[in-house]
Amino acid sequence: MSDNVPLRDEDRARLAEGDTTAILKLLSDIFPAWGAVDEQAIRVDALTGGYSGAAVFKVAADSSGILPLLLRMPGNHGEDPAIELFFKTSDPWIPAAAQRAWGAHPRHANLLYQDNMDAPNVCITEFIVGSVGDATLMNGPEARHYAAALGNAVGELHGLDSQWFDQGLTEKLGRDEQAVAIDSVENETTKQRIVELGSYQRFGRSFIDILVTEHLTEGDVEGVAQLGEAIFGLLDPNSLMGRLVVGHGDLKYDNTMIRSASTSANPDLVLIDYDRVMRLPAAADLGCYLHDPEPRSKKYPSLANRRALAKGYRDACIESGMDMREFRETEIDDIVLAMEAGLLIRSLWLSTIMTTLFPQYRWVVPVLREGLARAAKLLLQAKTDIGLREKILLNGSSKSVGKGFAVPLLFKTALQALKRRGGLKTPSG
Question: What is the domain partition of the chain in residue ranges?
Fold first, then answer.
């Protein structure tokens, strides 16, 4: 891998536009084989960059022996409110460093070039020939194999040496992760309050990140903190899933890929997109698997599939040399239940960004948070109620809560909105 090719701002601008001439020049400077490729033989296909707003291209050539590459440029975060919010609460050094640290491992795309050690700027990796994960992998015919592979990949990730993370934050950014997390909060009093509420030593960045995002959106930091305490508090810090790890932070199914060369019974799974890498409880990563943002399957992952994921995770932890005797709650069903807490963490964060991503659904947020509060209460109760524990294992915490509370709360929320807009008068008015 070479990092010696100087790039000017105008070069980066042309690359971000998918300019064929600029791309060929860059590739020719880095990889000798591309120097013999004619510009007419190059194919540049724009791919989605997700919520980060990144410009992503597949670059291929009609020449034998030339493998396709993936070119990724950082997003322009000044044009879209959601992307702007995303970048306010992140630092570009972290995904760049994660790519460097993890790119040599088989569960990650091989890093071929990165022009800046301090920010993602221009990044070139192998192009993975395969399929992006989708909702069918949560309950389709091969879902159990996918779940096991995902659990194994995450367990392997959590077992990797994370010295690069803390060392890099100190050396490159001159501050620790907590300072990075609250950097976008301008008011010093609010900063200190978020630090106090977020309990970095116990929960890593994940809780603080939720509070900061809420501060930048709806502003109910105290309310979200109270709910967050109930959710994060479900995880024993001495348990396998409550321990802090440097994790992916956004492990939804479409941030995974399955290589075409593998079989459905033994999928070769690759983790992609490191924009939300952070220190977090292990359960927060696994819980993403349970959240279907586009519920095409209309079904919760079966207990068999969730157990397959939990077993894959634990097996990978053991293979990395971890002694299970050092932790509490290491049985398969303990991990499955902890995943429910991870799902609630994921959903709480989503509730803080929903009004920015989908302002038309602001009215849903109170209902979502009430459901999260009820689910957290049930999970706490299940620690001593064996019957409830079995019910949650079978159906998941959300289904166990039910939907009976939603309609009255929606009606109440609608009335309050009408009052604020002056469309409804109180009896005294």
Answer: 1-127, 129-395
DSSP lists the bridge partners of residue 191 as none
State the angle between helix axes of 386-395 and 365-381 in degrees (0 to 180), rounded to the nearest 10.
130
**Residues 243 and 281: beta-carbon distance below 8 Å:** yes
Burial class (CB in 10 A: 0-12, 13-18, 19+), 396: buried
- CATH node for 129-395: 3.90.1200
Separation CA 398–CA 401 (nearest Å) = 5
Half-sphere exposure of 60 (CA within 13 A, CB side): 10
* Cβ atoms within 10 Å of 275's Cβ, excluding its own: 24
**pTM, entire model:** 0.90
Helices 332-357, 221-232: axis angle to 10 degrees equals 160
Angle between helices 303-319 and 332-357 (to 10 degrees): 110
pLDDT along the chain (429 residues), means of 10: 62 88 93 91 85 84 88 72 75 88 94 78 91 79 91 97 91 89 95 97 96 94 97 97 97 91 92 93 93 64 94 97 96 98 95 86 87 95 96 90 64 59 51
Task: Evaluate whether 89 touches 99 at the Cβ level (below 8 Å).
Answer: no
